[in-house]
Amino acid sequence: MKIAEALAAKQTFSFEIFPPKGDFSVEEATKVAGELAFCNPDFISITFSAGGSGNSGNTAAIAARIQQENPHVMTMAHLTCMGSTRSEVDAYVSRLQADGVENVLALRGDPIPGREPKDFSYACDLISYLKERDPELCIGAACYPEGHVACEDFSRSMEHLKAKQDAGADFLVSQLFFDNELFYRFRDACDRARIKIPVVAGIMPFTSESQVKRMAFTCGATIPAKLIKRLLATGEDPASVRRAGIEFACEQLVDLSRNGVDGLHVYTMNRPEVGRAAHDALVESGYLAS
């Protein structure tokens, strides 16, 4: 099944994990995904390595294993194109499809020092190529509720987003955000820009104060006053900060579900307990079946 089909039928619930690095093995990553699968997500996405190199093979391998071992869960493999050639993209996608993976999140990726773009300069170039290559491939794309961090003009950012839709993207997954009102404004902006494809809301529970600050600077995410107050109330106890971060994210998810977003996507940071907390909060609120 394809993610776009699930989004057309209901409000989806999904997770993201990242491929192993260092001591975190493929087997451990697959185990994490297996634990998340007990929450019955509609899909699990697996990130691609920065710059389109390094652990991309693990991305494909993990996506295939998750889907093979958990037939009720779709997988979505990330694919970045910065510095990639058409032949490299062809080989990667062919490998995914041979293993039954039908969903790809097409991204530009981070610039690689000393490596110039080859066949693709922007995500919309990759999306267009993938759709021409195989019209049946289900393609997701990234969106930015507060505008892309590298684009100061929000209207310009929306033009780029519309270009992704026009290139053939089937749905969008948002960058993390901490203020739901900003997402609702973004959803209205999508309507005005004639962006009609589903928009999945991405939420990342913070686990430390430094992580919140890092997300604010690297992603351009606004830190609302209620989040700052929540952090101040925890003091300096790491366990209290983690608990507050997960609780805050769960409150976001319940509110988003109540307000009819197309889908809910949790950036788990490879922590099954984060996924379980999100699942349980939505079940308790009546927005997700147990």
Protein topology:
Elements (H helix, E strand, L loop, with lengths): L2 H7 L2 E6 L8 H12 L5 E4 L9 H14 L4 E7 L5 H13 L4 E5 L15 H11 L4 E6 L10 H14 L3 E4 L5 H13 L6 E5 L5 H11 L5 H10 L3 H21 L4 E5 L4 H13 L6
Parallel strand pairs: 1-2, 1-8, 2-3, 3-4, 4-5, 5-6, 6-7, 7-8
Count of helical segments? 11
Kindly provide the name of the CATH class: Alpha Beta
Major beta sheet, strand line-up: 1-2-3-4-5-6-7-8
Range of helix content? 40-55%
Rg estimate, integer Å: 18 Å
Shape: globular
**How many beta strands in the DSSP annotation?**
8
Give a quick precis of the structure.
This protein has helices at 3-9, 26-37, 56-69, 86-98, 123-133, 154-167, 180-192, 209-219, 225-234, 238-258, 272-284; strands at residues 12-17, 43-46, 74-80, 103-107, 138-143, 171-174, 199-203, 263-267. It has a single domain (3-284), classed as TIM Barrel (Alpha-Beta Barrel), CATH 3.20.20.220.
Describe the structure.
This protein is globular. Helix 2 (26-37) crosses helix 3 and helix 10 (238-258) crosses helix 11 (272-284). It is of the alpha/beta class and 290 residues long. It is 48% helix and 14% strand. The chain starts with a helix and ends in a 6-residue tail after the last helix. Residues 50-55 have low confidence and may be disordered. It has one domain (3-284): TIM Barrel (Alpha-Beta Barrel).
Provide the descriptors you would attach to this structure in a database record:
8-stranded parallel β-barrel, TIM Barrel, alpha/beta, 8 strands, about 290 residues
